[in-house]
Amino acid sequence: MPFWALMILAPGWSVTRRVMASPLVAAPPLLVYVVLLVPQLGAFWSAVSAPDLPVLAALFGTPAGAAAAWAHFIGFELFIGRWMYLDARERGVHPLIMAPVLVLTILLSPLGLLSYLLLRAVLPARVERSSRVPT
Asked: What's the DSSP call for residue 127?
């Protein structure tokens, strides 16, 4: 949550920019995923190597399976949120427009990502000063 709070509540702060510059912000939940996965590797491998909905449902219905799935979701949501934050800053998207998109990404990440992709398609990209042709 601290990373999301930085992106949503203090997007222009130098600390936020410095922290979010690193893709390693997604590492902590992914490390939790690995810690949860390793002792159950056989069960997970069987479930994902030949995906079958009842098998996956049974695996994710266990405490270890649900915790691993949650850590997986959090890690990838944060990675996607970070990309959206950086891309929006580069494109000059106003933080008040991005805040609800980032909140939606935390809560329902596919809808948040889809919202951002739609937003990105309709908003023009900011032209960088260095790439402008002098007139």
From this structure: P
